[in-house]
Write a structure and sequence with these properties.
- By secondary structure, the chain is α/β, with parallel strands linked by helices.
- The chain has a seven-stranded mixed sheet, with helices on both faces. It has a five-stranded antiparallel sheet with strand order 1-3-2-5-6, with helices on both faces.
- 45% of the residues are buried.
- The longest helix is centred in the N-terminal third of the chain and has 50 residues, at 64-113.
- It has helices spanning 16-24, 28-61, 64-113, 116-120, 124-143, 145-166, 168-216, 218-224, 227-253, 257-278, 284-332, 348-352, 356-360, 369-372, 389-399, 444-451, 474-480, 495-499, 508-517, 521-526, 544-558, 574-587, 600-605; strands at 380-384, 405-415, 418-428, 433-437, 459-464, 467-468, 481-484, 562-566, 592-596, 608-613, 616-625, 628-631.
- The protein contains 23 helices and twelve strands.
- The protein folds into two domains: 21-332, Up-down Bundle (ABC transporter transmembrane region fold); 432-449 and 473-630, Rossmann fold.
- Strand 2 (405-415) and strand 3 form a beta hairpin.
C-alpha cells in the first residue's frame, strides 16, 4: 500500500516562522516596508518622554522659550506618530491579507489536488477546521495583533536605549528589579501555553468534526433513533474541549502577575530617582523622563505579554496549517492522476472527503437496469494473476496493440496488509461495451476508480491507448476518460453552476449543445428557470434521477473516449428513467463504455461482463442468460 501522510493532531511548533517563510517570501518587500514605517512611528512615540523631561528642566531653569519649543516638538511627534502608525497599519494589513489570500488559494489548490486516499483517511471536519478556521484566525492576528506586536517590540528596544542614555544607574536598578521576575513569568506562561494551546486546538478540531458529521447524518440519526447516542458522543467531545480550554485560560492568568512586578519597579525607580536628583547626579527632568518612559515600557511589556499569548495560540493554528500544506505537498509529488490541477473544482471535494471525485471528474450516476442495459456489442478478454497465467497473458497481448483501456497486474489496498484488489489484469478494446459485476465489496468500484485514474495502483499499471495513466497530462486524461459515480456530487447553486463542474471553461452555449445532443432540451425547458434553476443545498431539489441527468450532461460536454458508469440502485420514476435511457443511448455511441452493474436486468442486457469476487477476477465472457456466463478465459480455480 502506498504511504499516506497523515496529519498530526498536535503538529511540531518549532521553527514555525522559519517553515512559513517560503510562503511569505514573495511578499517580503511589502512586509519590510510596513515594518519599517511601523518602527518609525514607534520611535516617534519613544522620544516623547525625553522631550517632556527636557521641558521640565527648562521650566525649572525658567527658560520659557525652551519650554514652548519642547511643547511644540511633543505636539509634532504626536502628529507624526499618528500619521506613520496609520500608514504602517494599512501597509501591514494589506501585506498580511495578501499572505492570507495566497495561503487560502494554496490550501484549496492542494486539497483539490490531493489523492482521494488522503482525503478518505481524515475526518472532513478536521480538514475543514484547518482550511477555514485556522486561516481565519491567522487573518485576525494579521489585522489585529501583528501591528501591535511589532510596535510593542520596537518600543521595548527604543525605550531601553532612551533609558540607557538618560541614566545608567536607574536603568541598572530597573533591570535588577524588573527583568528577572518578568523573565520568570514569561517563561511560565510560554511553557504552560505550549502544552495547553495545541491540546485546545486539537480538541476544538475534534468537536468541529463531530458536530459537522452530526449535521450531515441528522436524518439517519433520527430514523435510527440514535440521536441520544450521538449526543452523548458530542457532549463528550465538548466536555474535553471545555477542559482543554480552561487549562489554556489558566495559562493566561499568569500574565496578571506582571502588575505586581511593575508596581515594585516603579516604587524603586521613584525612590532612587529622588535620591540621585537630590545629590545632583541627575536632573529632575531625567527622573521625569525615566518615570514616563518606564511606565510606557511596563505597559508595552504587559501588552506584549498578552500579544505573545495570542501569538502562541496563532502559532498553533499556523503549525496545523503548515502540517496540512506539508502533507498535501508531499502527496502532490505522487498525486493520483485524476486529482491533478486540470480537473474539477478544487475545494468542494476537500470538505466532503471522498466525495471529491464528484468535482474532479464529470460524473453522475447510472440509471436503473433498463437505462444501463442499453449498452450493446463489443467484447472483452480478461484475466489476472488470480485467474492464472493465461488470463494475464491474454490481457498483456491485447494491450500490446496500444489500443483500449488495460490494467496490468494491478493491486490496491486501503489499509496496509489488506489488499482489496489482487493482481487484476484486464483489457477493454476501443468502442467496447462491457460490465463489471460481483457482490458488494468485491472491488468493482475500486477497480473502476483505478481504471479512470482516481486512484493509483499500489503495484501494476493502468494504460489508456498504450500510455501509462501516470504519464498522461491531467487535462488530457480528464477529457479522454470519465467516471460517472453512483452518487452525483452537487453543489449549492443553480443548474448552470453544477454543469460548470467540468474540465475547462464552459459557456451556456456548451450546456445547451450538450443537452440537445442527449435529447434533454425539453427537460431543461421544463425547469422553472432553465439553466438558472436553483437546486438548493447539494442539489437537494433534484431527484436522484435528475442528478444523474446532470452527470450525463457533464460527461457529454467532456466527450470522453472511455465512459465508466456506476449503476445506481435507487428506483427512478418512469419519465426520468426514460430520459436517462435515451441520453445513454446517444452518449455511448463511438466510445468504450464500462458499466458497474448491480441488477439482473442490467446484467442480462450487457454483451460482456467481468465478474469480480474478493478482489480477484473470477470469470469473464459473454452473457448467455441471467446469472450464467460463457467464459472465454479460465476461471480462478
Amino acid at each position: 500500500m502506498a504511504d499516506v501522510r497523515l496529519l498530526a493532531e498536535e503538529p511540531d511548533q518549532r521553527h514555525v516562522l522559519r517553515r512559513a517563510w517560503p510562503y511569505l517570501r514573495r511578499h517580503r518587500a511589502a512586509i519590510g516596508a510596513a515594518v519599517t514605517v511601523n518602527l518609525l512611528a514607534t520611535l516617534a512615540l519613544t522620544l516623547v518622554p525625553v522631550v517632556i523631561g527636557r521641558a521640565v528642566d527648562e521650566l525649572i531653569d525658567g527658560d520659557r522659550t525652551g519650554l514652548l519649543t519642547a511643547a511644540a516638538v511633543v505636539f509634532g511627534l504626536v502628529i507624526v506618530r499618528t500619521l506613520l502608525l496609520r500608514w504602517s497599519e494599512l501597509l501591514l494589513v494589506r501585506a498580511g491579507e495578501k499572505v492570507v489570500h495566497d495561503l487560502r488559494d494554496l490550501v484549496v489548490e492542494r486539497l483539490g489536488g490531493t489523492p482521494l486516499r488522503f482525503l478518505e483517511a481524515h475526518r472532513g471536519g478536521d480538514l475543514l477546521q484547518r482550511a477555514t478556521v485556522e486561516i481565519a484566525d491567522l487573518a485576525a492576528f494579521v489585522r489585529g495583533q501583528l501591528p501591535d506586536l511589532i510596535s510593542l517590540a520596537g518600543y521595548v528596544v527604543f525605550a531601553t536605549v532612551v533609558l540607557l542614555t538618560s541614566s545608567w544607574q536607574l536603568l541598572t536598578l530597573l533591570l535588577v528589579v524588573f527583568a528577572p521576575p518578568m523573565w520568570l513569568l514569561t517563561r511560565i506562561v510560554r511553557r504552560t501555553a505550549e502544552r495547553a494551546y495545541p491540546a485546545e486546538a486539537a480538541a476544538r478540531s475534534t468537536l468541529t468534526a463531530t458536530f459537522s458529521e452530526s449535521l450531515l447524518a441528522r436524518e439517519q440519526l433520527q430514523i435510527d433513533g440514535a440521536t441520544g447516542t450521538w449526543l452523548s458522543r458530542l457532549r463528550g467531545d465538548a466536555g474535553d474541549y471545555y477542559r482543554r480550554a480552561r487549562t489554556a485560560q489558566g495559562a493566561a492568568t499568569w500574565i496578571d502577575g506582571t502588575w505586581i512586578v511593575q508596581g515594585l519597579a516603579s516604587a524603586a525607580l521613584l525612590i532612587a530617582g529622588g535620591v540621585l536628583a537630590g545629590n545632583g547626579t541627575i536632573t529632575v527632568g531625567v527622573v521625569v523622563t525615566f518615570m514616563l518612559a518606564s511606565r510606557d515600557l511596563f505597559s508595552s511589556v504587559d501588552d506584549l505579554t498578552l500579544v505573545v499569548g495570542d501569538l502562541l495560540e496563532t502559532r498553533v493554528g499556523l503549525a496545523r496549517l503548515l502540517d496540512l500544506l506539508a502533507a498535501t505537498g508531499d502527496h502532490s509529488k505522487q498525486r493520483e492522476i485524476s486529482d491533478k490541477s486540470g480537473g474539477g473544482v478544487p475545494g468542494h471535494g476537500a470538505a466532503a472527503g471522498g466525495a471529491a471525485a464528484g468535482g474532479a471528474v464529470a460524473g453522475g450516476a447510472v440509471a436503473g437496469g433498463t437505462a444501463a442495459g442499453a449498452a450493446a456489442a463489443g467484447g472483452v478478454a480478461a484475466g489476472g494473476a488470480a485467474a492464472g497465467a493465461a488470463g494475464g497473458a491474454a490481457a498483456g497481448a491485447a494491450a500490446a496493440s496500444g489500443a483500449g483501456l488495460t490494467a496490468e497486474a494491478v493491486t490496491y489496498s486501503y489499509k496496509a496488509g489488506e489488499l482489496v484488489l489482487h493482481g487484476i489484469s484486464v483489457h477493454f478494446g476501443p468502442g467496447e461495451h462491457a460490465g463489471l459485476i460481483g457482490e458488494t465489496g468485491s472491488g468493482k468500484t475500486t477497480l473502476a476508480k483505478l481504471l479512470c485514474g482516481l486512484y493509483l495502483p499500489d503495484s501494476g499499471t493502468v494504460r489508456l491507448g498504450g500510455a501509462d495513466l501516470s504519464a498522461l497530462d491531467a487535462a488530457d486524461l480528464r477529457r479522454r476518460l470519465v467516471l460517472i459515480p453512483q452518487q452525483v456530487h452537487m453543489i449549492a447553486g443553480s443548474l448552470a453552476d453544477n454543469l460548470a463542474l467540468t474540465p475547462g471553461k464552459k459557456t451556456r452555449d456548451d450546456f445547451a449543445a450538450a443537452a440537445a445532443a442527449l435529447g434533454l432540451t425539453a427537460w431543461i425547458d421544463s425547469l422553472p428557470d432553465g439553466f438558472d434553476t436553483d437546486l438548493g443545498r447539494r442539489g437537494e431539489r433534484f431527484s436522484a434521477g435528475e442528478r444523474q441527468l446532470v452527470g450525463l450532461v457533464r460527461a457529454a460536454m467532456t466527450d470522453p473516449e472511455v465512459l465508466i458508469l456506476d449503476e445506481a440502485t435507487a428506483d427512478l420514476d418512469p419519465a426520468t428513467a426514460q430520459r436517462i435511457e435515451e441520453a445513454l443511448a446517444r452518449l455511448r455511441d463511438g466510445r468504450t463504455v464500462l458499466v458497474i452493474a448491480h441488477r439482473p436486468a442490467t446484467i442480462d442486457r450487457l454483451p460482456r461482463v467481468v465478474r469480480l469476487h474478493a478482489g480477484r477476477i473470477e470469470s469473464a465472457g459473454r452473457i448467455e442468460s441471467a446469472g450464467r456466463i460463457e467464459t472465454e478465459e479460465p476461471s480462478c480455480p
